[in-house]
Amino acid sequence: MLSLEEDVEAQALRDQGWSISAIARHRGRDRKTIRSYLSGEREPGRRKPAGPDPFEPFVAYCRARLADDPHLWASTLLDEIAELGYRGGYSTFTRALRRYELRPHCEPCQVARGRDVAIIEHPPGEETQFDWLELPDPPATWGAGRQAHLLVSALAHSSRWRGVLADAEDFPHLIEALDIVVRKLGGVTQVWRFDRMSTVCSPSTGRISETFAQVAKHYGVRSVLCPPRRGNRKGVVEKANHSAAQRWWRTLADDTTIAQAQAGLDRLAVKLDGRRRVHNDQRTTVGALAEAEQLRPPPRVVFPAEFDVTRVVTAQALVSFRGNHYSVPPGLDQAQVQVRHRLGADTLRIVTTGGATVAIHHRAPDGAGRVVRDDGHVAALERAVLGAFSTDRPCTHKTRRPPSATALAEAARLRGLSTAGPAAHVVIDLSAYAATAARLDRAPTDESRKD
């Protein structure tokens, strides 16, 4: 490959009458190379590819995906085409995106933005950052409404993060998701950092609530709140939120179940543990830094927060909760009941709106699809259903049954009423017309003529 300066010199020497062989000897190049540049077959500064471009078969797919979503991360798109057979690295892939000019231009994103950001040092095992991530437009099959809720937790020192999908952001769901994500991270740090969540503190004063103070004591941590309007103070978990939204939620299919979505999120988080880092002038990874943090083991049981959710009883005397169904006594069809479950307990209670406990069941694993029935409920439901049946022979639908005498008499009465009216009171005597017609039917005689 000739540089731009070599190409200019070769062209000048050619214009001065030098032969191609002389120029090649002067520059120490092959004659065919000099000839191709002088003829315009090759451009200076651009190396001729040694073979077919391995990215070319994926150009159409990448162009279509970036047309659908111009802000799709390159790393997310690389994950997709890697499953389709692409074997190139990330830097080679991004160069190909620029070379083929596949990403559409977005004018609003060109606005200059940014501000000074300080770097905060976090010693190993010191801090865990938590944040709720509201995800818009979840799949309709989830029944989550307009938003799904993801609790994201990140270790401030190593940047390892994990996330858990939750049904809501109230206190019991926060405690349940918090316990799960802490165990996914591998242990407990010295400090937990939160936004000013109403389930953790008073948003106006920033003082921790009494209920969450008991949670902090249970896990043996200090709870620290971010200053108001200082999102960068917990920048590690904010970056984790960004990764989860762009590399997982943005490409989630409409037919994905909650369990499949959670599994996909876990795979992404584990994959990002392989991100490269430089610590103390040594090359390492996020996963290696996280393993060296020496976190304290979490408590053996979760903090005993209690769920109290409203459900409607089905016609089969069943109540749904967390992917399973639990029986109640008959007679509560379409009635609202409360399902109460204490975290860490093996049982749950079903209570009426009046406060009466109608069922106690052993809780099945979430999403198991089991139907948990009490033998007494089954027997009572069978008695109620069988008692509603009749032993008489069912009616036949092909029997001929014409109108009865009573029905015919009633029909005649109705017909008589329908003919009643002003014309019904006019009496016409037809005897005179009959006598005249009789006389006209007979031939005239002599006596009739004398008359």
UniProtKB/TrEMBL annotation:
GO terms for biological process: DNA integration. Pfam families: Mu-transpos_C_2. GO terms for molecular function: nucleic acid binding. It comes from the Bacteria. InterPro entries: Integrase_cat-core, IstA-like_C, RNaseH-like_sf, RNaseH_sf. Residues 120-299 form the Integrase catalytic domain. PROSITE patterns: INTEGRASE. Belongs to the transposase IS21/IS408/IS1162 family. This is IS21 family transposase. It comes from Amycolatopsis alkalitolerans.
